[in-house]
Structures are given as structure tokens and as C-alpha cells.
Design a protein that fits this description.
Chain lengths: 308, 253
């Protein structure tokens, strides 16, 4: 797919000498949903703020649909909508007026029919004449999204869109992101929630200390790095794993009542049948067996620990 | 040129102004009326005339200047400080709009608002004193240039300020005293020689003097000097704002 955003060797060092972005390069394809994961201070917000023009880069290049984000900033920025993390809105303004302001600011002619569509999709049309201060937190977040969509952008940045929102609204947000993708909008979101990335992203990027540690297709990532764990609960606790089971690299739970076996689901043989036989031969009595698929969260945690 | 962006900022700022329409207009009308009652009638009757102009009429240019200088500064500083404070500045910075266009929007709105206030004060003054404007063209030039330059000045304060105290500090602690000491309510010829010399270092004195000349044809200093003063102040403000946008000072990291 053609990249709609190309970032080349992007770095940002603040006057305080803090390096927020350290030689980052990435390409984002048109129409995809990219989730950027990372702990606080990883550089996620700085990265999207730099692409959007809010932060000046120290070095490097950014191209948006082929336009240099610095030299051709007008063309580049017209393609981008940004939803910030905080609910930053003029409380006294009405919903429709704040959308008109955003649309005008981005150089688009007045088009209340389009704004009506946006507000209807976000279930805000009934609130169009309400001052923003009278809306709930969830509605205010949707107003921010509506503002970001008011100038018909091809790319939408969502900075922690579901931070601090309830489960229901989070799922609504995911549905909205999916509908945006269907309409051809490229979505880049930053999040703390691994389940969010797992639920809606096509690709996942993991950032830490201003670097992208990993950038991969979500399914490939889960397949490549995903492991399954077999938990074998024993009838009686054991203090030491029998030597005959050493080759399986088992680990013992803290309570010493269960054995844990990691295996690769994509391998020809998982070794489970042989393991269960050998456990039986070692004189251990099984009580229960369960499996658990490793998630993006495990991958994310492992990756950050590896890089420490 | 992003005319639509300029228009959006301008309309947004004007809407904010009209939301507080009552206090925006009533306040200068009440304060101007009070000045006329206190200075024009009570004190003015003891003073008589200055350069053959009744004291009530003499203070009109100073009163208009006092209002438009403080209001221009206040409108423009709050205009840019509020989005910084609330956080909505991100939208301006991420929009396809350049610094010149941003200034046109914010300063344009501040100029319009303060011009409206200036006209309201002039109309109010007309109710109290018989007023003739000898040089209407220059009166408009001074009025517009003062609104523009002090709106630019206000914009700088709004960018510089880190809190609301700082937004109000310069207009209250610097601007208002300078306007009062710049001959708003008196001619410097009424001062002892030492204070006359000190007044020459007050830049606002030249603006009030020039503006008064446009009304009555008499002034403490020549009209050319007044025009140079206002032009210099405007150029200084433009220079500082250019630097602000070039460096992103307190706007962009």
C-alpha cells in the first residue's frame, strides 16, 4: 500500500536537553489503523504533535501524502485531523459553532450539511446548539472528534482517545474508529490499553524512550511472538520439579501446586502428549489442565523489560 | 492565503466579544460619563479653557485614547492567552495557517472591538460637550494606528503571560499610569519644567498630543513627531511578534 505518512530520521530534543524522539523512521499506509503503545514519556504524543505541526522537530523529515510537513505545511496539515488527549474546548461555545470554527480554520468553505453528517454520526446533532459546558465528558470527547473531522481529513490522529472513559464509551469509540477506516480515513492512535490496540489496530508500534522498539502487523506479531502456556494443576504440591522433566523447561507456580509449560502453537509438535505421559510416569497426579494465549500486553511487557 | 482561517478566528473573537455585549459597551459609557461629571463639570468649571478649548472638550481625546489603548491591549492579550490557557491553541498551531494570518485574525478582531469602544466613547462625549473635529482624516489615522499598535502590543503580552495576573499586570501597572501621565487630562505646559522634561520620555504623551491636535489643531508637540512615535511603536511590536513566531516563544516547543 502507498504510504500516506513517511517519517524519516525524526528527532526532537527539547531545550531542557530531554530527547523525546530519537531518530525515528516509519511509514504509515493509507487506510490503516496504527496503534502506538508505550509507557508515559515514551514519546508517543511528541511524535504525533510533531507530525501535526504543534512541535518543531530538531531534525528529520515528515511527508504527508507526499507533501513536506514543513515546506508544504498548508497542504500537509489540511489532510490531518487531531484529537488531543485532554478535553480542551471553549466551554461557552456551542457545538455547531465550534465545528464551523475548526472547518474555517482549516481553509474549508462553509458546509453545514457535512457538519450535520458528522454530528449525526457521533450522536451530537441534538446537542448542536448546546454550549459545550453543558455536555458530559463522553460527549465532549465526541465533540473533539467531530472538530477533528470537520475539515474532511484523510488522516486522523487520536491521542489516548479512551483514556479515563468508561467501557461502554470505549467500545463506541472503537466502533467509530472502524467506521472511519471503512470511509478511507487513516487512523493513528496512541494508547495505554493493549486491549484497544488488539481490538482495532492493523499494526502496532511500541515506543519507549523516544524510539520505536517494534513496528509490526498485529496478527503477525501475535503469531510470531505469541506463545501459549499450559497450566498443569497437581493433586499434591511438589517442592522440586522431577529431573525426568528437565527437558520441558517447566516452571513451578508460587504455591507449588501447578506446573507451567510454554509452547509454540505454530510448531509441528507441541510436546503436550509426551509431557503429560512423562508427568504421569514421574508419579505426579493431575488435578486440572488449562491453557492461556499470550497477549499483546505480555509481548509489550517483555519487550520493555528486554530493553531495560 | 488562508482567508477562511483568518475569518474563522476573527468571527470567533467577535462572537466572544458580543457574548459580553452589555458589559463591553456599558462599562466605557459609564466610565466616560463619570469622567465628564467629575473632571468636566466639577473640576473643569474651575479650570476654564486650555488653548481656547473648554476643559470638558479638552479631555475627550485623552479619554478616547485611555479607553482604546487599554481595551486594545486587553482584547488582544486575552484573545491569544485564553487558547493558551485552555489548551485550544493546539488547533491553531496544527491548522494550515501562518503566523501573519493568525495575527490578522486576532489583532483584526481586537482592533475592531477597540474601534467600536472608541466610537462609543466619542458619542458619549458628544452628549456632554460641544465637540468639533478639525482634522477628521488624521483623527481616524491616529485612532486606527493606536488600535492596531496596542492590539499588537496586547498580543505580545498574551503570548508572554504565564498566568492571568501577568495578562493584567502590564495594562494596569504600566499602561494606565503612562496614559494618565501622558497628558490625558492636562496640557504638559501646565506642569513645572522638570515634569515637562520627564513627560517627553513617555511615548504615550506623543500619541495623545497628536490625537488632540486632530481635534483642536493645538498640541504639545508637532504632529510629525507624534506620527513617528506611533509608527515606531507599531514597528517595534511587529518586530517582536515576528520574532515570537520565528522562535515559537511560549507558543510552540
Amino acid at each position: 500500500m502507498t504510504p500516506i505518512i513517511v517519517v524519516k530520521n525524526l528527532s526532537k530534543t527539547y531545550s531542557s536537553a530531554l530527547t523525546a524522539l530519537d531518530n525515528i523512521s516509519l511509514e504509515i499506509s493509507a487506510g490503516e489503523i496504527l496503534a502506538l503503545l508505550g509507557p508515559n514519556g515514551a514519546g508517543k504524543t511528541t511524535l504525533i504533535s510533531t507530525i501535526c505541526g504543534i512541535v518543531n522537530p530538531s531534525s528529520g523529515k515528515i511527508f504527508v501524502d507526499g507533501f513536506d510537513a514543513i515546506k508544504d505545511y498548508r497542504k500537509a496539515r489540511q489532510l490531518i485531523g487531531l484529537v488531543p488527549q485532554e478535553l480542551v474546548l471553549d466551554s461557552f461555545e456551542t457545538v455547531l459553532n465550534t465545528l464551523r470554527f475548526s472547518r474555517g480554520l482549516f481553509g474549508k468553505p462553509k458546509n453545514d450539511n457535512y457538519l450535520r453528517d458528522v454530528l449525526e454520526k457521533l450522536s451530537l446533532w441534538d446537542k448542536r446548539d448546546s454550549p459545550i459546558m453543558t455536555l458530559s465528558g463522553g460527549m465532549k470527547r465526541r465533540v473533539l472528534i467531530a472538530k477533528a473531522l470537520s475539515h474532511e481529513p484523510k488522516i486522523l490522529f487520536l491521542d489516548e482517545p479512551t483514556a479515563g472513559v468508561d467501557v461502554e464509551l470505549r467500545k463506541d469509540m472503537w466502533a467509530l474508529v472502524n467506521s472511519l477506516r471503512k470511509s478511507g480515513v487513516t487512523v493513528i492512535l496512541t494508547t495505554h490499553y493493549i486491549e484497544e490496540a488488539e481490538a482495532i489496530a492493523d499494526r502496532v508500534g511500541v515506543m519507549n524512550k523516544g524510539k520505536i522498539l517494534l513496528l509490526s502487523d498485529k496478527k503477525t506479531l501475535l503469531k510470531k511472538m505469541g506463545k501459549k502456556e499450559l497450566k498443569i494443576e497437581l493433586h499434591d504440591p511438589v517442592l522440586v520439579i522431577p529431573a525426568s522433566l528437565d527437558s520441558y523447561k517447566l516452571s513451578l507456580t508460587e504455591q507449588k501446586t501447578a506446573l507451567l509449560y510454554s509452547y509454540d502453537t505454530s510448531a509441528n509438535r507441541t510436546g503436550i502428549t509426551k509431557l503429560l505421559n512423562d508427568i504421569s510416569k514421574a508419579g505426579l497426579i493431575l488435578k486440572d489442565v488449562s491453557t492461556r494465549q499470550s497477549s499483546l500486553e505480555d509481548i509489550f511487557t517483555n519487550l520493555l523489560e528486554e530493553k531495560k | 492565503m488562508n482567508f477562511s482561517g483568518i475569518r474563522a478566528i476573527y468571527i470567533y473573537e467577535m462572537t466572544r466579544f458580543f457574548r459580553t455585549f452589555f458589559q463591553s459597551f456599558i462599562s466605557p459609557i459609564v466610565s466616560t460619563s463619570l469622567y465628564f461629571v467629575v473632571f468636566g463639570t466639577a473640576i473643569g468649571s474651575k479650570i476654564g479653557t486650555i488653548d481656547d478649548v473648554s476643559y470638558g472638550a479638552f479631555i475627550v481625546p485623552g479619554l478616547i485614547m485611555l479607553n482604546i489603548m487599554t481595551q486594545s491591549t486587553s482584547f488582544a492579550s486575552f484573545g491569544i492567552y485564553l487558547p493558551k490557557f485552555v489548551g485550544t491553541i493546539f488547533e491553531i498551531l496544527s491548522a494550515p495557517i501562518n503566523s501573519f494570518e493568525i495575527i490578522l485574525g486576532y489583532v483584526g478582531a481586537a482592533v475592531t472591538k477597540s474601534l467600536m469602544i472608541g466610537i462609543v466613547v466619542l458619542i458619549t462625549a458628544h452628549l456632554f460637550v460641544d465637540l468639533k473635529i478639525l482634522h477628521p482624516f488624521f483623527m481616524i489615522v491616529f485612532l486606527v494606528l493606536t488600535c492596531v499598535s496596542f492590539s499588537l502590543f496586547g498580543f505580545i503580552i498574551g503570548v508572554w503571560a504565564k498566568n492571568f495576573d501577568q495578562v493584567q499586570m502590564i495594562p494596569l501597572l504600566v499602561l494606565t499610569p503612562l496614559v494618565f501621565l501622558g497628558g490625558s487630562f492636562y496640557s504638559i505646559s501646565m506642569l513645572p519644567p522638570i515634569w515637562q522634561s520627564i513627560s517627553m520620555f513617555n511615548p504615550i504623551f506623543y500619541l495623545i498630543s497628536g490625537f488632540r491636535w486632530s481635534f483642536f489643531g493645538t498640541a504639545d508637540v508637532g504632529i510629525g513627531l507624534s506620527l513617528i512615535a506611533i509608527a515606531t511603536f507599531t514597528c517595534c511590536c511587529i518586530g517582536v511578534i515576528t520574532w515570537i513566531f520565528k522562535t515559537g516563544y511560549r507558543i510552540k516547543s
